[in-house]
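User: Please write out a complete single-protein record containing the residue sequence and its fold in token form, without commentary.

AI:
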Amino acid sequence: MLFVGLGNPGKAYENTRHNIGFKVIDQLIDDLGARDISKNSFHGELSRISQTLFLKPTTFMNLSGKSLQVVKHFFKVELADIVVIHDDIDLPFGAVRFKRGGGDGGHNGLKSIDGTIGKEYLRVRVGVGKPAYKSQVADYVLHDFSEEELRKLTLLIRHVAKASMALSREELNIVKSHYSLKSIESLG
């Protein structure tokens, strides 16, 4: 399986809402002891343990598909075995949902991926909340989590990492029933 966390490279973006996918991949790499196998041609940070791959594209969000496409082809990963973990402003902070395929919801990382490999990959949607006005979306996702969100972030990241690994062992409907959250308070 290939797990892909979406985000933007660099210190300036490290704790932004848009980088929740990167944070989950970092947690998975730490938990499993995956080793770095990155190459410049992958356009991302790639780690591996056994037959499981973990990718953080370093192309910036809007070109995430470029990195994913290269890694997918190099390792001959089937679309059904790709899991993309990303922020979702249409879900409240701490909500977690799973689905296969669907639209991009205005998410430029998903738009890039859909355009390069297709839409029928698994998605782990992590709610980061939504700004008051649609015109504030770009600014909102590129800003750091609030202090209140940061206090709950570690718990959320661990939950999403555990749920992501469950996708490699269990049917999607079982994962949905065990790991979907309406909010982070559900874990409390």
Remarks:
- The CA atoms of residues 45 and 56 lie 5 Å apart.
